[in-house]
# Entry
Amino acid sequence: MLRLALAFLLFALPATAGPIRIKDLVRFDGVRGNDLVGYGLVVGLNGTGDGLRNAPFTEDIMSNLLERLGVNVTGEQYRPKNVAAVFVTATLPPFARAGSQVDVTVSAIGDAKSLLGGTLVMTPMNGADGQIYAVAQGAIIAGGVSAEGEAARVVQGVPTSGTIPEGARVEREVEFELASLRNVRLALRTADFTTAGRIEETINRELGRGVATMLDAGTVALDLDQTRLRSAAHVLQKVENLTVEPEMAARVVVDQRSGTIVMGEDVRISRVAVAQGGLTLRVEEQPLVIQPNPFSKGETIVVPRSSASIEEQTGTGLAEVQGDTTLSRVVSGLNALGVAPNDMIDILKSIHAAGALHAEFIVK
# Structure
């Protein structure tokens, strides 16, 4: 109950979005990362690699790798347990130059039990166009632990996936000439007409009227020629640090697994009455064993004995939640019901279904 009270106390605090930098509200059109993927081999595992009978592709890639290194394995039978086939993924950041390094994620695709202690062998990484943009290699940092015995096994975390910090070196740059752009679009992370309008006003006030134009709720266009600055980079450097107070839509987000409830400041609830209670069904099995008398010809039988009962919880009765204009009043009304977070989620669902919750209701 103390944790629940603290959670609702946080919701009840007066909250305003406050000025936010434009760089945290938008994405600059064209300034984006590129996804890379590769197929490689991890070696050095302590007997936790792929079973080659169940993952023949591991044997194929290992044979190809050894042959490229000058080792002829044609017709040879080998069944090592210290190798595993993996997918290697990474994101090539914008403006990454040849020779820079990026982090990679390594994930087993066969029946390997763990990648702990493994080393990724040199793996080329391709972009969506099929070109090689980076090469990955290095020791894997796995995020789990696996241990097993003759009759038991315990796994904590995900030992079949790991990362290699700065494990890929960029070999090819993505061609993008920012200096040649004459127009740049700002894409809002959360589309909103009011926020887009405020961004337009702020930029025009700082750089001159006519520089920014709101195209729709999610896009603001910049005319770089109107700024009279030296380059597009100088314009974006000035724009991204301007601050704007965003307008947020009213939302209620609930996570049923953890019982978490998050409400936005603009959430409103109309005046509504709520009653909450529940039924508990209990079924117990107590079988009775009946044995025959000593030296008789009878047999032992088990007679089923079951008991069932239904208990009705007292509940909160019919409580009134006042329709008010502040989040703290809404929270106080809901908190007055004195129910657990999971029950509160059910109450919010019912209020939303009744049309009394004036906010977007999101269930995860």
Summary: Residues 34-170 form one domain. The chain has three domains: 34-170, 177-244, 252-363.
